Automatic annotation (TrEMBL):
GO terms for biological process: phosphate ion transport. InterPro entries: PBP_domain, Phos-bd, Phosphate_ABC_transporter. Residues 20-260 form the PBP domain. Residues 1-23 form the signal peptide. It comes from Corallococcus sicarius. CDD domains: PBP2_phosphate_like_1. This is Phosphate-binding protein. The keyword Transport applies. Keywords: Phosphate transport, Signal, Transport. Involved in the system for phosphate transport across the cytoplasmic membrane. Transmembrane segments: none annotated. One of its GO terms (molecular function) is phosphate ion binding.
Amino acid sequence: MKKTLLSSLVAFGLTVLPLAAQAGTVTVKGSDTMVILAQRWAEAFMKKNPSMKIQVTGGGSGTGLAALQNGTTDIAMSSREMKPAEEEKLRTQYKAPPTQLSVAKDGVTFYVHESNKLDALTVEQLRDIYLGDTTSWKDVGGAEAPIVLYSRENSSGTYVFVKDVVLGGDDFASAAQTLPGTAAVVNAVAKEKNGIGYGGAAFAKGIKELKVKKGNEAFAASAQNVKSGKYPLSRDLFFYLRNKPAGDVKAFIDFALSAEGQAIVTQVGYFPVK
């Protein structure tokens, strides 16, 4: 009933204040790419602050941003930038612009089976593969075998990033199998010798990461290449708030951006912003 009531109030243009959280509790929701990182931050933060509780859940960037608007999370995790329409809804509803904070960096990585002899593809080749224009590995220098496509659900920030940056806004091929998280994509590619999938750099275990060709060079999603911007699919990972951080929320964010918090970013497999 609570969700229905909130939805109805928003539909009629009424201002809805965030639902009150328990004292000493901060809720963090959204990007599946960021869940492991946020959980590690939460664990380390709660060790230092035993009276605090940080609740972290995934569901995708779009889900987190929707929860931020309806007042059911304090922090939305997003692996993409907020869309203008999403920003305007928050601004209208809460009478203030939302706050965007870059908390880590990532390189969106395309994964193939360990036995795949290819080491690198261009963005254009990746685009043709995911649009369904290229359907055999032989067409991009690989074995004579069909390409098996794995993708993410459309609530995923990584899905949106790949669609916008790699596919130029076009739709994924209908043959692409939609999976509910990056871990599921990695698991599928690890089992399918002709598979290809994508996700955050931190998840690339048990499969081969393709480098991305740019001109005469091929770039891996390394810390140096992501930081310099040489890796063509570099991106920021964000926290979004309804307004400026304060109180317990600010304390948690300050920890995430501290030297200790950014060291955790590296340990998890992403890249620090500082």
